[in-house]
C-alpha cells in the first residue's frame, strides 16, 4: 500500500515538474493551469485501467497547447465515466470545468453539467451513457469545443516560371483567418477565387482585407484581384460564429503574376 501511494506521489511530482518546466521555457500562461488538474488526475489514477490513456493525454496536453483543451476534456470525461472512486470522478469533473476559459462557455455547459452528474452517480453503466450523450448534445447545438483564441494561419506559396500560387487551407470556425503574404520582391497582380457557404442567410460571412482596405462578402462565389508589393498581406477572415444547423466554410484558391 505504501509503495502504491509513494508511486502516486512520484507521478504527481513528475507531472507538476513537467508543467513548471513547460512554463519556464514557453512563459507562464493562465491557459496552462488545467494541466495541473490533468496531472493530478494522472497521479491518483495510477493503479487504474484508465492510467495509460490519461498518460497519453497528459503528454499531448504538455506538448501541444492547441490540443491541450481536448486532452483535458477527454481525460476528465473518461474519469467521470469510468472512475470507480469518488475522488477520481470529482477530479475528472474539475478537469472538465477547468477548460471553461479555453472554450466558448456555450460549448462547455452541456459537458460540465453531464460531468457533474456523472461524478455523483454511482452506477457505472448510467455514467457511461451520460457522457457520450452530453458530448453529442454539446456538439449538435454549440459545435466542437476548441481553443477560444485562434492564431491566423499563413498560407504557403510557390513561384515557378514567374507565376505565383498559394496553398490555402479551408477557413472555418476553428481556423477563422488565413494570411497570404506577398513575395519578397517585385510587384504582383494576385487573383483569388472564393467559394463560401454553409449558412442560411444573406448576412456577410467573410472579410477580404489588404492593408487598410476591407471588403465584406456574403456566401457564394467571387473572384477578386489585387496588386501587391513586398510587405503586403492579403487576409481571408471568417466573421461568423458557430450557429446550430450551420457550417460556415470558405474554400479559396489564389495565384498571381509578376508585373
Brief account:
This protein has 7 helices and 11 strands. The protein is α+β, with helices and mostly antiparallel strands and 259 residues long.
Task: Supply database-style keywords.
6-stranded antiparallel sheet; 2 domains; 43% helix; Jelly Rolls; 7 helices; 259 residues; alpha+beta; 5-stranded mixed sheet; elongated
Summarize the structure in words.
With 259 residues, this protein is of the alpha+beta class. It has two domains: 2-147, no CATH class; 153-258, Sandwich (Jelly Rolls), CATH 2.60.120. Helices cover 43% and strands 25% of the residues. The chain has seven helices and eleven strands. Strands 2, 3, 4, 6, 9 and 11 form a six-stranded antiparallel β-sheet that branches. It has a five-stranded mixed β-sheet with strand order 1-5-10-7-8, with no helix packed on it. Helix 2 runs antiparallel to helix 5 and helix 4 runs antiparallel to helix 7 (124-142). It starts with a helix and ends with a strand. The model has no long low-confidence stretch (mean pLDDT 80).
Structural topology:
Blueprint: H1 2-26, H2 34-44, H3 51-63, H4 68-82, H5 86-97, H6 105-120, H7 124-142, E1 153-154, E2 156-160, E3 163-167, E4 171-172, E5 177-181, E6 188-197, E7 206-210, E8 213-217, E9 220-228, E10 233-238, E11 249-258
Parallel strand pairs: 1-5
Antiparallel strand pairs: 2-3, 3-11, 4-11, 5-10, 6-9, 6-11, 7-8, 7-10
Helix pairs in contact: 1-2, 2-3, 2-4, 2-5, 3-4, 4-5, 4-6, 4-7, 5-6, 6-7
Amino acid at each position: 500500500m505504501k509503495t502504491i501511494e509513494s508511486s502516486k506521489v512520484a507521478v504527481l511530482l513528475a507531472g507538476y515538474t513537467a508543467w513548471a518546466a513547460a512554463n519556464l521555457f514557453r512563459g507562464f500562461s493562465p491557459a496552462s493551469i488545467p494541466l495541473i488538474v490533468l496531472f493530478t488526475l494522472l497521479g491518483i489514477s495510477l493503479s487504474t485501467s484508465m492510467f495509460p490513456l490519461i498518460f497519453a493525454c497528459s503528454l499531448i496536453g504538455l506538448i501541444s497547447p492547441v490540443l491541450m483543451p481536448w486532452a483535458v476534456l477527454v481525460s476528465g470525461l473518461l474519469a467521470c465515466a469510468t472512475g470507480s472512486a469518488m475522488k477520481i470522478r470529482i477530479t475528472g469533473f474539475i478537469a472538465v470545468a477547468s477548460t471553461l476559459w479555453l472554450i466558448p462557455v456555450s460549448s462547455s455547459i452541456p459537458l460540465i453539467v453531464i460531468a457533474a452528474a456523472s461524478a455523483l452517480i454511482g452506477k457505472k453503466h448510467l455514467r457511461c451513457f451520460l457522457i457520450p450523450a452530453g458530448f453529442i448534445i454539446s456538439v449538435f447545438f454549440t459545435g466542437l469545443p476548441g481553443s477560444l483564441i485562434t492564431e491566423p494561419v499563413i498560407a504557403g506559396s510557390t513561384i515557378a516560371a514567374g507565376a505565383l500560387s498559394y496553398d490555402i487551407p479551408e477557413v472555418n470556425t476553428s481556423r477563422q483567418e488565413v494570411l497570404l503574404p506577398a513575395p519578397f520582391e517585385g510587384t504582383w497582380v494576385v487573383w483569388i477565387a472564393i467559394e463560401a457557404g454553409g449558412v442560411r442567410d444573406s448576412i456577410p460571412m467573410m472579410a477580404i482585407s489588404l492593408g487598410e482596405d476591407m471588403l465584406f462578402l456574403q456566401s457564394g462565389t467571387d473572384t477578386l484581384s489585387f496588386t501587391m508589393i513586398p510587405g503586403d498581406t492579403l487576409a481571408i477572415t471568417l466573421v461568423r460564429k458557430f450557429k446550430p444547423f450551420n457550417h460556415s466554410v470558405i474554400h479559396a484558391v489564389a495565384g498571381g503574376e509578376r508585373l
